[in-house]
Amino acid sequence: MLTQVVLMGAVAGAQAVPASQSLTYGRSNTFSIFSAYSGDSSHILMGVAENRRLLEFGVAYGRKLYANGIVNWQYNGELLPVALESDPLGYFVNHQTSPTVATYSGNLGYAELGCAPVTDVYDFTLNNADGSKTTYSGTQTNSCHDRRWTIGEAFSPAGFQWNFMPRRKLQPFFIAHGGYMYTTQPIPIASAGSFNFTFDFGAGLELYRSKSKSVRAEYRFHHISNHNTANQNPGIDNGLFQVTYSFGR
Description:
The chain has an eight-stranded antiparallel beta barrel with strand order 1-2-3-6-7-8-9-10. It folds into two domains: about 20-85 and about 150-249, Porin (Beta Barrel), CATH 2.40.160; about 90-145, no CATH class. About 5% of the residues lie in helices and about 65% in strands. By secondary structure, it is mostly beta strands. It contains one helix and ten strands, in the order αββββββββββ.
């Protein structure tokens, strides 16, 4: 009789263990290293600057906040010591028809907001020193050619990650952050700012190689803008691909 009571108590105790303690794959503290890249930007939600590229290298820290058999909710903050942004440079082709027929071309030396070719017709007259007048006419087409990389750093202290089906090795997850990015010169155009706010959100898959180590692959919407703290605020929307290696316990 005593043996049966002991066994029943042990079974009841095992059933009373919270689901969060029975998770097979999930860490209390997570440390990560990652790299991310986007080869283009467009007007996805808010940004209007086109053809911008992002290349980022960073580290992250995560802390488990709540877990059960369905979801593992974690705090997630990211620090990017290297955040590179690339802007396309303006390029012009001037076809002059008066006073002589000639073609001139070259770099404009600054970043263009968009790279779709834009052609303008010009026709103006200048007074010469001898009192005569010369009329200049023709067309000029502006587009993009070459690009300029700008180095910066970024920090996203406000972030969360939700892993679903945490008892499985392969877990789908959703992630989101908010923070800032500082660059050595204004981006994405000269009249914008060097200090910008950022936010991102996305989803991916996390594969646990062991109980403490995993790799993640994800796609994020990533936005950069200065919140009207500079003369212009065109904003940048990127689709960002990120690969992360995580470890901890």
